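Chapter review: from sequence to fold.
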Amino acid sequence: MVERLEQLYATRDVLRRRELVRAALGARAGDRVLDVGCGPGFYVAELLEEVGAEGSVVGVDGSAASAAAAAKRCEGHDNVAFHEADATSLPVEDGEFDAALSVQVLEYVPDVTAALREMHRALRPGGRLVVWDVDWATVSWRTAEPDRMARMLAAWDSHLTHVSLPQALTGHLRDAGFEDVGMEGHTFATNELTPEAYGGFLTQFIEQFVVEGELVDADEAKAWADEQRELGERGEFYFACIQFCFSATRP
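The token string follows.
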């Protein structure tokens, strides 16, 4: 999984997403930044450049393999630290950070408000939070077999705790004590079957996921992916979804 995430995070659409997240966070020189669910550390590495030697970045992830990959990516910096921990129990001090981010993590966390309260605790008064998650109900994908597409997407959605978290995230943020809650939706759409686009990468990723998890028969999954490949070869591929960037402040 870590290897697949490494591949995904290097694609064109995910590079665009990281730029949007960092712009929303607005990290400045000297800031202390917390990345909750840091994965293999792409954001941490980029934020280290933004905060400079006088700032610092801490990454937290529930996966030991991800935390190890992140630490390797950030070798050579003495102003960075990584912890293996749950989002609802962050191993950091109260008011330790100027800014925090959590990208496509909370859709997997059962108690979203509890995780947000931990981020609230970790931020100083006036600290900034950015949360990015996908509303998977917004996925629009061309197919001549809508029933098969529905089965494939339902199997994919089964790995999520919250399929449409952005719909409720404003309330969760306010319940956790945040103010100035803002929301922006960003469309990720493509008419090319290329791994550089979010939809193109997901075609291969979902086929592997549902087969390895024995969620869909391998022949049906291959037929679904073959249709997408044929659409791509004919120049008729289509995929779109909306991903949401939330910003908030600890009062």
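Two observations follow directly from the output. The CA atoms of residues 14 and 59 lie 19 Å apart. The first helix runs from residue 2 to 9.
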